[in-house]
Specification:
Structural class: alpha+beta
Number of domains: 1
Helix content: 10-25%
Strand content: 25-35%
Oligomer: single chain
Number of strands: 22
Shape: globular
Largest sheet: 8 strands, mixed
């Protein structure tokens, strides 16, 4: 016992009844390390919680959109309306035996897509191939692959031109020309011409020295209002009501806590009637891609939910003081359109057995390269090298990983020769790990893309896509 007491004594001979400063500092260090560890995971936990909420809201909106899609027959071609972007709709002689009644279609007027695809307005591809491929002039539209996008089509500035005849400074409309104007074409999804070269700055003119063979694009349409035998767009307010989630209400809370919150509303008929709908914050909205499945009587419908979609729907102008036709081009990625981008797949491996795979993509360094895990991309190719109708394929894939980012946050920059013209271009280069169904890239995999781009794969990157829900429906 005495030995124990001696061991507990200080040099001064007095018993110790507390802890030393060293012990206190050591304990505080342990606590601080734990707190630092806790604080470090809070942002990750918060981001994952936000992603979970986004995915839940997006899935709910997608399921509701699909239910309405089927209930209201949005997959029926007779419901699809677009506005032609052609400056020359001159009469053309019938190209089939027996002639037939010509359908009157006026420039820049809402038109049923099924009317544009009428044989009177179609051109043969050439030689013995009797398939109807091209629409009026060189429109090259397709009715077997469409993107239903009510919000985009309802944008009023999208059909007003900067130059004549409208002279609207913020107008985005431009008459379609295969070459001479820049790479954008708003009637397509993504909003690029079929012959746009993804190695080239899209604000530059498409010319014979940089254009590609026509690559697959979807035709961008909206839903017909249903009260007119002629094509009639739904309004912007109706498009909001159709495309947005009704759950994220726009609620204003007054500073005076004794007052009740206010829910903003608006009329949806354009009349003086007081009833309408409650405004939403518009955080989530959807687009739908409809693609005929070759060799059958069904179509694949994919509802893509976009978070915080940019409602300016900007594409680089052709006319105006800062437009392509005046010799002014975008000199950095932020000056170009960022919401929809096109890349070319240069390598692929996997994509057998439903487990997804790996791809390498390149795109112009004048295009925003931002892509993060968890987003979705769409791959497209024309499986029919003879370019018969029905050969275009479009499928969505989830990005599970991105390789190729440098310390600056940008992808690698490399020099690649254009496979069509042989011209060297500086491009972004990334490797993506994708989750999704099997895919035939048009070249042997695993391995690099071949030199024949006509049936190879291009990729569409859409900013903010947080969920894609796919269903198969029977074609009407």
């Amino acid at each position: 016992m005495s030995d124990f007491k001696l061991s507990r004594r200080h040099a001064g001979g007095r018993d110790r009844h507390g802890v030393t400063l060293v012990e206190v500092a050591f304990a505080m260090g342990i606590i601080l390390i734990g707190l630092v560890g806790l604080v470090s995971i809070l942002p990750i936990a918060g981001r994952q919680a936000k992603d979970a909420v986004s995915l839940n809201n997006a899935t709910s909106l997608a399921n509701a959109a699909l239910a309405e899609f089927q209930a209201r027959n949005y997959g029926q071609p007779g419901r699809w309306v677009l506005r032609p972007d052609l400056s020359r709709l001159d009469p053309r002689p019938p190209i089939f035996a027996g002639g037939g009644q010509r359908i009157a279609i006026a420039e820049n007027v809402p038109t049923f897509l099924s009317d544009l695809m009428h044989p009177d307005y179609q051109l043969k591809l050439g030689n013995a191939n009797t398939a109807l491929r091209s629409g009026i002039g060189d429109v090259s539209l397709s009715d077997n692959a469409v993107c239903i996008d009510p919000l985009f089509v309802a944008d009023p500035l999208g059909y007003l031109s900067v130059g004549p005849p409208d002279n609207v400074p913020d107008g985005k409309y431009v008459d379609y020309q295969p070459t001479g104007t820049n790479g954008h074409r708003r009637i397509r999804f993504p909003y690029y011409k079929a012959n746009y070269n993804p190695f080239v700055n899209p604000s530059l003119p498409v010319t014979s020295s940089n254009e590609w063979p026509a690559m697959p694009r979807l035709t961008r349409v909206t839903i017909n209002r249903g009260v007119s035998t002629a094509g009639q767009f739904i309004s912007g307010t109706e498009a909001n009501y159709l495309s947005e989630s009704g759950n994220d209400l726009n609620i204003t809370k007054p500073k005076d806590q004794t007052l009740a919150p206010i829910i903003a509303g608006e009329a949806i008929t354009g009349t003086v009637m007081t009833y309408g709908k409650a405004q939403t914050e518009g955080t989530y909205s959807w687009i739908a891609t409809v693609n005929e499945i070759p060799g059958g009587s069904t179509s694949s419908v994919s509802v893509a939910v976009i978070e915080n979609r940019d409602r300016t729907f900007f594409t680089y102008p052709n006319a105006g003081p800062e437009g392509t036709l005046n010799g002014v081009y975008a000199d950095d990625p932020e000056a170009n359109a960022t919401e929809e981008r096109v890349a070319y797949v240069t390598y692929a491996g996997g994509f057998t057995g439903g487990a997804g795979g790996t791809v390498e993509i390149v795109m112009s360094t004048y295009v925003d390269p931002t892509i993060i895990p968890g987003q979705w991309v769409m791959m497209s190719r024309d499986a029919d090298r003879l370019r018969n109708p029905g050969g275009e394929l479009h499928r969505w894939y989830r990005v599970s990983g991105v390789v190729g980012q440098t310390t600056s946050g940008e992808p690698d920059r490399i020099i690649v020769n254009d496979p069509v013209h042989g011209t060297p271009y500086e491009v972004w280069h990334m490797r993506l790990m994708l989750d999704g169904p099997d895919w035939n890239f048009g070249f042997a995999t695993p391995g690099p893309a071949d030199s024949s781009v006509v049936d190879n794969t291009v990729m569409t990157l859409v900013r903010g896509v947080v969920s894609v829900t796919e269903r198969t429906i029977r074609r009407p």
